[in-house]
Amino acid sequence: MRKFDLKVLLILSLGHLVVDIYQGALPAILPFLKEKLDLTYAMTGMILMASNFTSSILQPVFGYVSDKKAMAYLLPLGLVAAGVGFSVLPFSPYFLLILGLVIISGLGVASYHPEGYKTAHFFTGDRPATGMSVFSVGGNVGFSLGPILSMYIIDLYGFPWLPVIVVPSLLCAAVIVAYRRTIMVPVAVHGEAARREAPKTSSVEYIALAMVILIVVMRSWTQIGLMTYIPFYYIDYLKVDPLYAGKLVFVFLFCGAVGTLLGAPIADRFGHRFFVRLSMFLSTVTLPVMFLPAVEQSPFLFVVLGVQGMLLVSTFSVTIVMAQKLLPTKLGIASGLMVGFAIGTGGVGVTILGLVADHYGVPVALYSISVLPALGFILSMFLRYDD
Fold first, then answer.
1. Which CATH number goes with the domain that contains 177?
2. With contact defined as beta carbons under 8 Å apart, do 110 and 54 qualify?
3. Which of 151, 170, 197 is at the close of a domain?
4. Is the per-residue pLDDT at 17 higher than 90?
5. In the chain, what is the straight-line distance between the N-terminal and C-terminal CA atoms, in Å?
6. Residue 84 and residue 93: Cα distance in Å, rounded?
7. Which of 3, 136, 296, 304 lies in disulfide reach of 317, CB 3.0 to 4.6 Å?
């Protein structure tokens, strides 16, 4: 493994930021596609489903292919596919064409992540969680920027001008190609050496990997659930200004990105398993505080949500490093399982919260999220993992 290389990690993180802009922006532009083509809500749901399936659930497939052979060209290719597929959406006159373009964009997102995490692994040196956090935070920021950037373009110039959002993907792909000798060649050399030297994964390690996946599912279910139901709770139930609800979600997401950076060095110092347990325990303790009558409509709520975001998301890069350590010869699959499958499965869990909201109301759905970090903490107590 090469020494810690901040320059390479920042280049890869920039690509991560850009590719996740398109993933984050899609839900924000759905109302414009719906109006333009007179789509039903079911059709818009199909668009999101196609995007989630290709961009998240298929990531382990790309990871499997990536592990078989060095495929660093997936980095610039994934960026271009994600950007072009998304940016052409305003020109599409047919629903089926929209689905096709969303699938192309989703495949670009799905191909970048496993290859990006695998590549980043070889430049983290003796600080694996810290290095991985540099790469991961790019995605956190990009996902948050997507809706803002797309709405800014549409608000200033109109929906037909949205295709200009393709520019970052093309520029970033060019940067990665320009640094290909620095990034791609060492990965191929060190990757082959790592495959020869790594021991065979035992059944105990596969069980540990399954436990880590379940913990990430609980974490993702909590995160996506809060992102989804905080607006419903405060806009529809408490009747507050929609902008206020938007600010709450932004604080939660932004502090989550900060937590990704701050938590990784702590995990490297005190142990990955210990840090995951600590994160899940503290998230379990702090989450119910936001529902206290004295907090839920006070300015202190922003502090509580900020702390919750930092605690919950602080293990984002840590769990990826744990999976890569448990599957040292299959770094692409390990990354795809953590970032794609586990997070995507956690997102599917929000559908269950929707059923709870339909039958028992939005408050009950939001309150029930408090159980999820507790389940993650219980799972972490049974996790067998050597730092």
1. 1.20.1250.20
2. yes
3. 197
4. yes
5. 17
6. 16
7. 136
CB 182 within 8 A of CB 9: no
Q: What count of residues does the chain have?
A: 387
DSSP 110-151: HHHHHHHHHHHHTT-TT-HHHHHHHHHHHHHHHHHHHHHHHH
Residue, of 134 and 193, whose pLDDT is higher: 134
Taking residue 299's Cβ as centre, other Cβ atoms within 10 Å add up to 7
> Taking the alpha carbons of 362, 211, 280, 129 in that order, is the dihedral positive or negative?
negative
Q: Do the domain assignments include residue 1? A: no
d(CA 252, CA 226): 9
b/e code 245-271 from CB counts within 10 Å (16+ = b): beebbbbbbbbbbbbbbebbebbbeeb
* More confident position, 193 or 145: 145
Q: Mean pLDDT, the chain, as a whole number?
A: 86
Rounded CA-CA distance 312/225 in Å is: 12
Q: What is the pLDDT of residues 53-70, one digit of tens each?
A: 888 888 888 888 877 777
User: Which structural domain range is residue 114 located in?
Assistant: 6-197
DSSP E strands in 325-373: the ranges are none
Whole-angstrom distance, CA of residue 314 vs CA of residue 277: 11
Contacts of 69 (CB under 8 A, 6+ apart): none
In percent, how much of the chain has pLDDT > 90?
A: 40
224: its two tokens: 């996506």
213: tokens are 């996946």
Q: Which class for 113: exposed (0-12), middle (13-18), buried (19 or more C-beta within 10 A)?
A: buried
